[in-house]
Amino acid sequence: MPTVHLVRAGERRRVPWRNGAGVTEEIAVGPESTSGEPLWRISVADLGETPTVFSAFDGQDRIFTVVGEHAVALEWESRTVSVSPWCPVAFEGAAAPRCVPDGATLAFNVMVDAGVADATVEFVDVGADSVRTGTDGVTALFVKSGAASAAAHRAHPGDCLVVRDEEVDLLGDARGLLVRISLSHSTG
Description:
The chain is mostly beta strands. The chain folds into two domains: 102 residues, Jelly Rolls (Sandwich), CATH 2.60.120.10; 71 residues, Sandwich (Jelly Rolls), CATH 2.60.120.10. The chain is built from no helices and 19 strands. β2 and β3 form a beta hairpin.
């Protein structure tokens, strides 16, 4: 399997939400755990424009980022969080909030098995920041604007570069979400 992979916006695999309330498009999925669930997953969900409830993912950590034009409110029993576009918010996957969008929008999700994986998501400017992937883990760049290159691959808005266990410089003038996923050594 190539260590640098380009996933174009139109090539993502559509999968129904676990609770049947919507659809997500998978960008990349890690190996399965003993329970059959992936150790990590990167995807883009269509949130639509009407309120919905997220699926619960026990034992998973989620980093949620609005990547559409409209902000959303995430509502739990004890609190509500307003989420602006391109501002990552982390929470436990078992906490399935109600999502109230200000209008039709999309969300970028990174979910990891909380027992064996860690993830970070940050907004970066590849042209201004030096971005290098690591030899131990997964690095992905979801492009908002501009373009980014890694090896022989060039990503444009809506595309995602996924690099597994290889040190590569991400080059270009892209701005977007940088994901870093690391697995504990006990996962193999």
